[in-house]
Protein 1
Amino acid sequence: MGLAELPMLLALVGLAAYVVLGGADFGAGVWYLLLPGERRRPLRDHTYHAMGPVWEANHVWLIFVLVVVWTAYPHAFGAIFSTLYVPLFAAALGIIMRGTCYALRGAVAGPGEERILGALFGASSALTPFALGAAVGGIASGRVPLGNAAGDPIDSWLNPTSILVGVLAVATSAYLAAVWLTADAARAGRGDLVEAFRKRALAAGVVAGAIAFGGLFVLSSDAERIYNGLTSDAGLVAAVASLAAGVATLSFVARRRLEAARWSAAVAVGTLVAGWALAQQPRLLPGLTVERAAAGDATLVALLVSIAVGAVILIPSLALLFGLVLGGRFDERPEQPGSLERVGTGQVRTGAVGTEPRRPAGIAAAVCAALGVALTLLFDGGLGLALGVVLLLAAVASAASFVVPQVALARDVDD
Amino acid sequence: MLVQIAQALGPVDQDYLLEARQMQALSFAVHIPLVCFGVAFPALVLGMEWLGRRRGDPLLVALARRWSKVMIALFAVGVVTGTILSFELGLLWPEFMARYGDVFGLAFALEGFSFFVEAIFIAIYVYGWDRLSPRAHMLSGIPVAIAGFAGSLMVISVNGWMNHPRLSEAPMRALFGNSYFWHEMVHMYLAAFLVAGFVTASVYAVARLRGRRDRYVQAAMSVPLMVAAIAAPAQVVVGDWAARSVAENQPVKLAAFEGLGHTEAGAPIHIGGWFDERREEVRYGIAIPRLLSLLAFHDPDATVQGLDRVPPDERPPVNIVRVAFFTMVGIGTLMALFGAALLVIWWRRRALPESPWFLRTVVALGPLSVAALIAGWVTTEVGRQPWVVYGHMRTEEAVTGAGGIPLGYAALATIYLCLAGATVWLLRRLARAPLEIEAGDGPR
């Protein structure tokens, strides 16, 4: 492994995170579709709430993968996006629809609105992983040549491997979601929901496993390279690891060891990505190895340093978020009477106290503004201009800190 | 390695280049107002919560809580529209990505991290009401405000680079050591506060016109309004800096702002009128002598380069750029005058005007500020044409060879229309929900 391959490794880690975390989100949406009717409404509500706090973060992984690939392997990125434009555009539309429905779900009232929004949400939750999986299938089966839209716009994604990977992406998403939702329900102490999702987790696990295993036959005829890679050497190890983790998950779920199942399910799905990567390496596109596709060393080093710096901030932040979520801090709690006082806006009574003007902030703002404007207008560059701009921004900030408290606490209206 | 395969992605004929550009422009126009809220709103929300807790005013805390729900809803939509943009860069402009992705991608990689941080802490902040201690809760909001700023800084460095590429430099230097990027950054940062401030104030001004005169509505209108009123005059000074930088680095773009056909000393500015491509001059406008020279170089006799500096196929579409420029400057001047007058009135009376005409003006400034924002981006981006990377890669060299662009454009436009309608509907729903005032937020 050299400098040229490191960014690909990181992109694959990001992809695995997206397939697991984003996948669980998509899967929850798929269950939304598979659980219709008013009787199953509590189940649907559970899928929605479980996604809540982690939704945005889970979907930033996709952006991370795209950005790393286009920076480190720009020509391959251009080739992939120009040939596979149909599934990728479909995925983009799915992402828009899904995000919109998700944001709107908090505001729905009545079963009619909920039904329409839920159907759209579920459909786009299935469409997006399918389309992204189909695109991966096109790359895996060597149907994306180097060049601007050089591949077949239809055959590149409408082929046995693409359909297999697309269906598998939907199935593993639903499976992951079911396992995680079972664990979430257990944590929240909702015994009724645990049983409902436990059954579904077992069924989805068997289905996803069957598709993955049956898929090997599809690969053997349509993507021989990947088939050979998965049945020998490191690829075989990954495939066996995935199978073992999948079987372990089923047994954990069956024995109600749900927190362990959460992790083993993630491993089962994450190792599928590893298996694909190991089976396909060192080739990125036909006739183009990862090493040959890589950008110049200066870019690669800068990218790796950027990612390292970013990771120092990101990893503790993610740990904090998931710690809070998995620790149940953000779970829906029954309304505690007295903790929240819901009032109409008309009858708000406040304990606001009067405020005295903060003169120093006002004077500082005026001085900064005068100096900042003069310097910014006088200098065309260099330190004088930089100082002018900084003073100008400081003037804005100190003026705001002077004015805002006074207008916020003003009581000059008929209160 | 890239040298060997540099020719692999060759330029192609694309019949729908204009549609591809419009599709990209549409996506930016949808995304950019949301960015303003991602950048400026966290600071407003956090400031409100801090003030409310410090002064023991539960009403302000309730306002921060309400705004934080709006903030996360707009952020969620922004995540989606931002993802679409990164897809479109590849789907529509694969040649651009193939040739220059290794330079500007770095900035996007850093932006990805700030996006991550914003997504993580916005969730902690919004879900953390009642579940975290007030101190921990406010601390969790700080990274949101910082990441919002840092993310836009990264993205704008890419735009600065596209307008002022220095290909001989190492990527990091080319992006962040770029003199062009700083004025764009400061201009955009202030614009974010103008848009978030005026749009928010506009919403509550509507409520006041409908007879809501309680303190909640008063505070919710006046705080963002005053923030925007303070930022608006400062924006004029930053705009002047930006114009001087354009005059120096992109003289053809500056010539397009005014419609200056020929290089001349003591160049005028025409108010109104229309640029005649054939005569290469502005017709029917009111000329103000020497003003362009004065504004661009702070010297009324300075020589300003005209469009004739380059052959016609290297000029941007003048009228689009010119109208966009005057729209931005016109609305910007209006906002600055309004802001300065408002500050003077407030200074003398320590109270804001109450008249319906004042409120109607505030209502109008919301959409106007968004119009100025979009016009500003049209000015700089259409003004960059026909280049995608100024002076190095033309837009038609960057485009995809794939088919189906009109179909994709229609689908995207339809979906964005639905998205816009849905967002308005959602915000109205949120506005009607009852306020949640924490019993524990009283004076302590």
Note: The two ends of chain B are 66 Å apart (CA to CA).
Protein 2
Amino acid sequence: MLLTSILCVPLVIGLLCLFARPRKLVEFLNIAGFVSVLVLGVKLFKTVVANKGNAVAEWGEFLRADALSTWMVLLIAVVSLATSLYAVRYFRRDLADATVTERRFREFYVLTPLFATGMLLVVLANNLGVMWIAVEGMALSSVLLVALYNRKTSLEAAWKYVMLGGLGLVLALFGTIFTYAAAVGKTGAAMPSFNWSRLLAMAPHLDHHLMTLAFIFVLVGYGTKAGLAPMHTWLPDAHSEAPSPTSAMLSGVSLKIAVYALLRFHILTTACLGTGFSRNLLLGFGLSSMLLAGPFILVQKNLKRMLAYSSLEHVGLICVAVGMNAPLTVFGALLHMGYHALTKPVLFFAAGNIHQQFHTLDFRRIGSGLVRTMPVTAVLLGLAAVAVSGLPPFGLFVSELTVIAGGFTSNYAWVSIVILTSLIIVFCGVLNKLAGLLLGPSDGKHPRETISASNVAAMSLPLGTLLLFTAWLPGSLRQLMEQAASIIRGIP
Amino acid sequence: MNISTPEAASQLITLLASLMLVLQLLLAVQQMLVTNIRIFALQSLLLAAIAGVVGYAYGAWHVYVIALLTILGKVFFLPWRLERLVRQIKIEQEIHPFVNMPASMLICGALTVLAYVVARPITSLERIGSNTLAVAIALLLTGFFLMINRRKAITQVLALLTMENGVMLAAIALTTYGMPLVVEIGIFFDVVVAVMVLGILVFRIRESFASMDVSKLNELKW
């Protein structure tokens, strides 16, 4: 009952928070809930590795976790846990400043576990229709989180998010139906199974024409949710207007969940057609996202918007790496997902601290010399920025190098060169902006930050984990990722 | 007419599907908000009728469930909820589209033709009705247009819902029995929750902007 409990824990926590009165209890429930999801996730990880990569299934294969799903479960658990740790001090301060009302505070603690449940269901559902429902559920639970502050700009961001997301999801549903239709009539039953694992088993018999169409619809649909260019326009708005804990979850993990959904269809399409059709499309959209993100980072005036574009860059890189389809690049893509999930939240948490201190995210209005007024936040932000721009000693350096090296060794040298170029642009942009922000003289008008243990812990734990897993990647984790990579590459 | 034979059912479905398209075109030119909502309800009723015909002709009980859910959700509940929202926020009834009526009519006509062209190579995949898939794609495309062409937040929600109707029509056309029941029920609840969430958002936008004109939502740029 492992999978069922992974799904039920956050769901129950969300419902409990609806009724729990004391604020401390609500905060505690969230943290405790995500700790248990992480523990269960690790247990699932051990089971799957012990199973030699065979999937764990429950409810007659309704829920199914193979290596790829397990990896995603771990990412969701880690990011949600970091978020719930950080949210404690963040919302206490917002409540003290009267930036949020009591009602909105509760809304956050109810919707965040539901958001996490949605994401977990996406990766654990075997039925592709149920997966679509979960993606929609995840989108709906996060919309009100984006609009939490009720400012004009956050409402605008939420509206764009829900409308573009809704359009994307309608297209993805169209694609999902096409996929199902491709299986109708190919088996004896009037209504074939809609389970991914069953469809994969009969993939060569699926209707080729319909699968081609289906993948295009799904790519545009889930691609919108993943923020792939040119369907990314909602992304910087939603990620910058949401409260920082939500931004961390949106950027850190929900984009990757949409990529995961896309990957499931990619695997199916490749198995059906036997060509590089879906692979090349992923490569193209990934490259366009990477190339588009750089210039926007260079001219960006708003800290969180800059971080959002950086997420666009990383999602692009993941898609490109999968598109190249070499053992090394796909492994690198999975590694990159993990390292990015550990880094991006820290950046958004630091941005949240800055926002609460200065009440703005505009680089010019914050000025410079943050390291003097907010030493702890500034140092952590600096470290995370070094990590996210792909510098050693942080893991993103390793994963990016893996992808680039994989490209050079597998006839995709030109792609590797494009990746390198866009990474350098982003590197210059991010470090230039942040150096200006962190270093230099301070205007001295703002009080020094007050340091809180939970805040520092929420930010340094993911960074510490990142360093740990960069220096020492456990053999079992590597094994899991290798299994996941072979699932993506369609090698049983 | 005896509709228990698949051929007769197929003809009836073709008729009902084309009526859905007619309603969609009506939606494009109708200027009153509440009438718009009622046209959508009627369109959903036709969708439910199609599901009912399939259920009857093929003796599939689970398609009846789909029909019933559609009637409860999209014919009664959602239109009722949307109309209540319109009353609550006391907005003026008239829709001011960006493109005027004759031009919208022409554009929708062109989009319908385009849908038929697009669907041409795949009509052989239809299992029921003739050109139902083309109608579904036409609903999708004109839904897109309606969404772009409307300023009021509620009308954009309606456009999204008509697109969803198109997708459900495609599901029946391509697979006869629709999707497994668990999926259909899930989609149903998602749509209902989506409209509730959108309702909350529309309400808040109306409060903050003193308007429902989404073209005023233009502060965030790159």
Note: The two ends of chain B are 59 Å apart (CA to CA).
